[in-house]
Amino acid sequence: MSLTPEFLVFGATGQQGGAVARALLAKGKTVRAFVRNPLSDSARQLAAEGITLAVGNLSDRASIDRAMAGVSGVFSVQTSSPSGLVTDEEEVAQGIAVADSAHAAGVAHIVYSSGGAAGKGPTGMGHFDSKSRIEDHLRSLPIAATITRPASFMEMMMLPGMGLDSGTFTFFMAPDQPMQMIALEDLGRVNAQILCDPHRYAGQAIELSSQAITVNDLAQAFSEAAGRPIAYQRFPDAVLAQNGFLRKLSELIDEGVLAGLADISALEREFGPMTSLRQWLAGSGKAVFQAALEAPRAEIALR
Ligand SMILES: NC(=O)c1ccc[n+]([C@@H]2O[C@H](COP(=O)([O-])OP(=O)(O)OC[C@H]3O[C@@H](n4cnc5c(N)ncnc54)[C@H](OP(=O)(O)O)[C@@H]3O)[C@@H](O)[C@H]2O)c1
């Protein structure tokens, strides 16, 4: 067995990178995770699962270059400005640094996890347009690359402030507007398959979603999983009037940009069955859903 892992995964202590790293492990692949703090609980957990750690920081190009040595495939993801941890410019610089480093190291294939609103022209939202800029840079490099554009995560609906605890779930969609969403387990599985078959997927930009979810789907699936009625409301106009971030996201959903363009049937033919909201609530989402039902009231915390 080679001592150098086959794949380098960024963000492996986080949601996307964690799902991708574990999906690669499940396929019997070897993985190196790029981590800031090897002593953090999440980094130790990765190591305990058999993942090699490369310590570095996305703002330190030399540390990225060191981590690239010898790998043949890279999963690239960066955090974005709603997290409060980076500016949009920093996200772009980090995404470009990973792409440039992969190219310089002669990596065979890079998968960049972008976002569903990227690559379709300017949106006016910094953390979506940043991803279009990283995509453009990646396409300008002579490296085999696949862009995946995940829809909003089902997990995001469990963040504080959405009202599950109060019996009325509050979110973006208007009653007649389905919104595509993805379960992180699908995101991990699909990106892992892409990493493992570069010749099939390089050069493609693939929109990813598990289900196009309607307001009725939400109310029914949440009520069933909670064992009590959960109603749905769109963010009230008063909230949208005060919060430009939420207003802009709602507008982008109304305009279809954020509602999602993934061809879910085609995804299922290629990658196998996608996880429905109901399945997610009974499976990997069960614990986080129960926690959200019991959470103390909190401010909205989107990212
Ligand atoms: N939420 C959604 O519905 C959704 C949908 C589509 C796309 N997105 C996009 O997904 C991205 C975030 O992905 P995620 O949710 O998987 O992130 P996450 O769970 O917040 O994890 C972020 C990861 O990045 C690492 N990281 C942060 N800053 C770093 C740095 N300077 N150097 C090295 N590593 C660093 C973190 O490591 P540490 O453990 O060291 O902190 C962590 O592993 C954002 O760009 C967002 O716009 C989100």
Would you give an account of this structure?
This protein is an alpha/beta fold. It is built from 13 helices and twelve strands. The strands form three sheets. The chain has a seven-stranded parallel beta sheet with strand order 3-2-1-4-5-6-10, sandwiched between helices. It has a three-stranded mixed beta sheet with strand order 7-9-11. A two-stranded parallel ribbon has the order 8-12. Strand 4 (73-76), helix 4 and strand 5 form a beta-alpha-beta unit. It is globular. It starts with 6 loop residues before the first strand and ends in a 9-residue tail after the last helix. Bound molecules: NADP nicotinamide-adenine-dinucleotide phosphate. The site of NADP nicotinamide-adenine-dinucleotide phosphate has 28 residues, from helix 1 and strand 7.
Reconstruct the topology from this structure.
Blueprint: E1 7-10, H1 15-26, E2 31-35, H2 41-48, E3 52-55, H3 61-68, E4 73-76, H4 88-105, E5 109-113, H5 126-140, E6 145-150, E7 152-153, E8 168-171, E9 179-182, H6 184-196, H7 198-201, E10 205-208, E11 211-213, H8 215-226, E12 231-234, H9 237-242, H10 244-254, H11 264-271, H12 277-282, H13 286-294
Parallel strand pairs: 1-2, 1-4, 2-3, 4-5, 5-6, 6-10, 7-9, 8-12
Antiparallel strand pairs: 9-11
Residues 11-17, 35-37, 40, 42, 57-59, 77-80, 83, 85, 115, 127, 150, 152-153, 156, 303 line the site of NADP nicotinamide-adenine-dinucleotide phosphate (NAP).
